[in-house]
Amino acid sequence: MSETPPDSLIPYDEIVQEALRAVVGRVLGEVSDAGDLPGEHHFYITFKTRAAGVDIPRHLTERFPDEMTIVLQKRFWDLKVSESGFSVGLSFNQVAATLTIPFAAITGFVDPAVNFALQFQAQLDEVEAERAEHAENDAPEIEPVADGSNVVSIDFKRKK
Description:
Radius of gyration: 17 Å
CATH architecture of the domain at 12-35 and 44-123: Roll
Shape: globular
């Protein structure tokens, strides 16, 4: 008898990934409905910048050609959540921007206030394969570090 389990005809991994992304959607939906984050909660959301349906300013795509982490804490606005994703207003170097991110593009969700984290497998079939060409004056690409140093800095005052 073989000790290797047979290949499943049921895509359990995909089903679990979809269910966990729904957790992110529900949490963001509750924050959107309430109009603010409760208590000390705040979120780090990492996503593939070139995934299908992602709509972010070009300068952010150029700066983060593969993956980007945003922080929802004090200063964000117009959080809107749909069945397929969310959009939110954030400030980058004091320049306002609206980001639209499908749940399928999310690769990580962390709420450090309660030590909660979810990691997702990238859905490669939904990620655009084409990478941006870099200008000659671009800084060399740096590999992301697990200590959070690849997190985008933003202003942390909530705009009312």
